[in-house]
Every structure is written in structure tokens, then in C-alpha cells.
């Protein structure tokens, strides 16, 4: 089982600069203002924030890697 405190749900995705540029997290209404992004790959160990909408489904990487779900920034 993947430990969400150490990895995102999709920890196989390389959080490279190229990929990070596509990430929508920092312009998302639910962004937890952590200064981090690419939560699908990196996960989070911060307390859960508010779910005010998730832009992941509009992200290039979401489609490319066929991700499912959203709110990867939420520690749930
Ligand atoms: S994971 Fe989804 S909800 Fe969280 S900041 Fe990124 S786009 Fe927004
Ligand atoms: S799927 Fe979501 S968390 Fe992952 S890179 Fe795209 S916007 Fe960021």
C-alpha cells in the first residue's frame, strides 16, 4: 500500500520541470498555498485543506498518465 505521507498516488510520474510547468495546482482555488505542486506525484503530509474545485482533470499530465480522481493535495 502506498503511504500518502511519502508519495502521491502516482509516484511514478517524474516531477520534472517540464511536467511541473503543466501542473495547474498553483492557480487552483483549492491550492493549499504550500509553495509545492505536482501533488499527484509528490503527495502531501500537510493537513487537509478545503475542496473548492480541482483543476487536475484539465491538466495535460492527468490525461497523459490517465490519472483518476483528484484533490491530490488533500491529505485524506
Ligand atoms: S491537486 Fe487538484 S485540488 Fe489540489 S491544488 Fe492541485 S488542482 Fe487543485
Ligand atoms: S494532475 Fe493535478 S497535481 Fe498532477 S500535475 Fe496535473 S494539476 Fe498538478
From TrEMBL:
<dbReference type="Pfam" id="PF10967">
    <property type="entry name" value="DUF2769"/>
</dbReference>
<protein>
    <recommendedName>
        <fullName>DUF2769 domain-containing protein</fullName>
    </recommendedName>
</protein>
<dbReference type="InterPro" id="IPR020075">
    <property type="entry name" value="Uncharacterised_AF2234"/>
</dbReference>
Amino acid at each position: 500500500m502506498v503511504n500518502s505521507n511519502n508519495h502521491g498516488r502516482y509516484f511514478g510520474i517524474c516531477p520534472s520541470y517540464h511536467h511541473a510547468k503543466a501542473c495547474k495546482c498553483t492557480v487552483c482555488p483549492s491550492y493549499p498555498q504550500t509553495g509545492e505542486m505536482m501533488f499527484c506525484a509528490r503527495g502531501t503530509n500537510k493537513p487537509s485543506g478545503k475542496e473548492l474545485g480541482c483543476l487536475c482533470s484539465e491538466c495535460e499530465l492527468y490525461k497523459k498518465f490517465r490519472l483518476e480522481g483528484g484533490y491530490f493535495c488533500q491529505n485524506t
